[in-house]
Amino acid sequence: MSEEVQDKRRRLFLTAAATAVTGVGAAYVAVPFLASMNPSDRAKAAGAPVEADISKLEVGQLIRVEWRGKPVWVLKRTEDTLTELATKIDKLRDPDSNESEQPESCKNSARSIKPDVFLAVGICTHLGCSPTYRPEVAPEDLGPDWKGGFFCPCHGSLFDLSGRVYAGVPAPLNLDIPPHEYITDTRILIGSSGGQA
Question: Does the pTM exceed 0.70?
Answer without folding.
Answer: yes
